[in-house]
Design a protein that fits this description.
Layout (H helix, E strand, L loop, with lengths): L1 H7 L3 H25 L14 H25 L8 H20 L1 H10 L16 H29 L1 H4 L11 H27 L13 H25 L9 H26 L11 H43 L1
Length: 330
């Protein structure tokens, strides 16, 4: 009863995180609304007025609106009544999309400042989007990442406290453990293919990648950063299915959450981007990016499903044990 009362009275910190996160979405939402309604702010030419770009802008507008709604649900008492999967699924995707932006892009921006500029060809007339738009958009994404993670952690600690106390030995074993281990090992090995491709991009390869205007140093930071986040997720998933011990599971679970989310979120983004013919990819061969994106999407989805089953079963077993212990003491 006390926990429910505490949850029903969100503190100033949670409210501040909610307000800050929603505020961080406003510049991006304003830009997207402006472009959808025909404004040319921040762009060169009329490329944003094409049907494909209007559709893409509407889709990404909706995604950021969902982020704002998610921040509100994590902070308000009514969010406790939202089905868990309806919060966890978009939060997992949001984490995967935003984690590389928060962790990798700031480093790439600093590197780009010393190596010829970030996301620019050097000739403004050749770029659809003006340079300041990248600063506004990625700055907002970074703040959203911080706010959503903070809000989700506060929400989850009260709603699913048992997950934070899990140890590796608490994860389900039994007859299915061997099969689960084989599935994870096989999918993780398969996931090394797109990781290897991205690492090759980081070191200058142009195989399976569309043309871009980044410097070699920027590419090294961005491509290796994305690849290493996915690789960390693969390693974490394998670790979760190995012989259990008494170590806390939280760090490994977080790594698996971020890594699988990055694989799925960015894999799906690349896959969809490759399918759209817009002024941003005009004249480029997107088949390689579609292949890498498709592989990552599949790997992220399968491993995340296993992760969800592991955590759900372990948390349920932990709650049942706690209930039995309480009944015995009573």
């Amino acid at each position: 009863m006390t926990r429910m009362q505490n949850f029903g009275s969100p503190g100033r910190l949670r409210t501040a995180v909610c307000v800050g996160t929603i505020a961080a979405t406003l510049p991006y939402l304003a830009l997207k609304i402006a472009w959808v309604t025909g404004s040319g702010i921040g762009v060169h030419g009329d490329g944003m007025r094409s049907g494909a770009m209007i559709g893409a802008n509407l889709a990404t507008l909706g995604m950021d609106a969902i982020a704002a709604g998610l921040a509100l649900a994590l902070a308000r008492p009514w969010g406790r009544r939202v089905p868990g999967w309806l919060l966890v699924l978009p939060m997992w995707v949001a984490t995967g999309l935003l984690a590389p932006i928060a962790l990798v892009v700031p480093v790439a921006a600093v590197v780009g400042a010393f190596t010829g500029g970030f996301s620019s060809s050097g000739d403004p007339s050749q770029d659809l989007i003006e340079g300041w738009v990248y600063a506004v958009v990625y700055g907002g994404f970074g703040l959203q990442a911080i706010g959503l993670v903070a809000g989700f952690v506060m929400h989850a600690r009260e709603r699913w406290a048992g997950v934070f106390a899990l140890r590796l030995r608490d994860l389900p074993a039994g007859a299915a453990a061997g099969t689960r281990r084989l599935i994870v090992a096989g999918v993780a090995a398969f996931g090394l293919i797109p990781v290897a491709v991205q690492l090759s991009w980081a070191f200058g390869s142009h195989a399976l990648r569309p043309e871009d205007t980044r410097t070699a140093a920027e590419s090294l930071v961005i491509d290796s950063g994305f690849a290493l986040l996915v690789l960390a997720g693969l390693v974490a998933m394998v670790a979760l299915t190995r012989r259990p011990d008494g170590r806390p599971a939280l760090r490994t679970l977080i790594t698996a959450w971020v890594g699988t989310g990055t694989a799925f979120g960015w894999g799906l983004f690349w896959l969809l981007t490759s399918a759209l013919h817009t002024p941003l990819n005009a004249g480029q061969d997107m088949r390689g990016l579609a292949l890498v994106g498709g592989l990552q999407t599949l790997v992220g989805a399968v491993l995340a499903t296993v992760l969800a089953l592991l955590v759900t079963e372990a948390a349920g077993a932990s709650e049942n044990a706690a209930d039995r212990s309480g009944m015995i003491q009573a």
